[in-house]
DNA sequence: GTCTATATTTGGATAGAC
DNA sequence: GTCTATCCAAATATAGAC
């Protein structure tokens, strides 16, 4: 299908492609809220008119759908990678947390938007359903990790999964790519999640990632 | 029989007071979003008309202001209580986490709304400013706890505070008062935050022991 | 305290010219 | 691909009667 040239490229003036439109829209959605952002605002940010904007996308909801898909796809790709890893559930859970932080950092604006979706339209409900699917994956991983004795068994795995990813997801509230490598942050999150805030005690070894 | 009648009572029909209006508004704001909720929706939920609603409150933004104040006041009351406690910073930090979970549970809908505020109006900016103030308090407590050796010192205290309360705040996404005592949840959160997910140990290891 | 209008603005979306 | 002009629906808020 994708023969050749019609690939739209970023040029000096207008000539926008869907990606550029999406990027501008998502930025505005996150800054001012989805509802508070008008199609006029999106068009203005791109330097075009509303009519021209509608020439590129079918409507406001489609912009939202594309954005949350991009976020959710990233998380599921991370989940698929750890699923195929041949190691303990505990290590896979750690790896999933780590990967999720990286996905969140790489697709920050898309994930931010995803996490603010409440489920009032079909598009939003679909996004929520996929989030629940991801949650179920994490919960199952936590359950297995408990079964193998890798993590504490005195907490409901669903609760643990929620609190764990509650911490991860809260990154969208303050993480900014310009300061700090995401890998370092991912390590911090994994350490805090698995070892807690308590003082490092030299008699224990955490077996964490070699990546400094 | 109250001393005087000006205290508006919950009655069969209308006769609403500001608290009832606020409760209805906040529920709708959380369910459908602040922007997506019209003053008509609020009025309809109360069984009155828009005009009557405007007789009770000065406008939509005032409803938001009252709601977020109620949330933020709760958090600062908790902070004031731990500040006066005569104990280590580490214990006070734990207590603040614990109290915050309880405040969050008690004023769930108000806190939920607070955490969704983005700062696009004066009211929202004021709410954000108070949240930052609270964050600073937590960060300072974390710094003191590190200084006294109560919590690990290899993590920036601001980062620790954010991740810690990221976990706490994520409760609004799934906690429902009808299932489970908030005190039990608060204990779980404190345990996870301070001791981590790792197996309660005596002899720690990496967790790849054979099952059980 | 509650109602029935209604003023005014803004938003999503389309038609059709260039 | 971009524009001007416009339609139509919905939202905040007010006026003024009962």
UniProtKB/TrEMBL annotation, chains A, B:
Pfam families: TetR_C_24 (PF17932), TetR_N (PF00440). Keywords: DNA-binding, Transcription, Transcription regulation. The keyword Cell division does not apply. The keyword Hydrolase does not apply. InterPro entries: Homeodomain-like_sf, HTH-type_TetR-like_transc_reg, HTH_TetR, KstR2_TetR_C, Tet_transcr_reg_TetR-rel_C_sf. Gene3D superfamilies: Homeodomain-like, Tetracycline Repressor, domain 2. Residues 15-75 form the HTH tetR-type domain. GO terms for molecular function: DNA-binding transcription factor activity; transcription cis-regulatory region binding. Residues 38-57 bind DNA. This is Transcriptional regulator, TetR family. It comes from Actinoplanes regularis.
């Amino acid at each position: 299908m994708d023969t050749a040239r019609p690939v739209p490229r970023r040029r000096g003036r207008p000539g926008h492609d869907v990606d550029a439109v999406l990027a501008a829209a998502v930025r505005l959605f996150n800054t001012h809220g989805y509802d508070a952002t008008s199609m006029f605002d999106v068009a203005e940010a791109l330097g075009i008119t509303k009519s021209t904007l509608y020439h590129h996308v079918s409507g406001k909801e489609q912009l939202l759908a594309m954005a949350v898909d991009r976020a959710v796809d990233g998380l599921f790709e991370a989940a698929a990678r750890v699923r195929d890893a041949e190691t303990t559930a505990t290590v896979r859970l750690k790896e999933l947390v780590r990967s999720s932080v990286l996905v969140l950092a790489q697709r920050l604006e898309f994930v931010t938007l995803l996490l603010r979706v409440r489920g009032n339209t079909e598009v939003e409900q679909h996004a929520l359903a996929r989030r629940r699917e991801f949650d179920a994956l994490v919960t199952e991983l936590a359950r297995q990790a408990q079964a193998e004795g890798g993590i504490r068994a005195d907490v409901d795995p669903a609760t643990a999964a929620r609190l764990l990813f509650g911490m991860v997801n809260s990154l969208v509230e303050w993480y900014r790519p310009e300061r700090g490598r995401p890998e370092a942050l991912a390590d911090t999150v994994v350490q805090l999640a698995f070892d807690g805030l308590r003082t490092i005690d030299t008699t224990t070894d955490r077996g964490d990632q070699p990546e400094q």
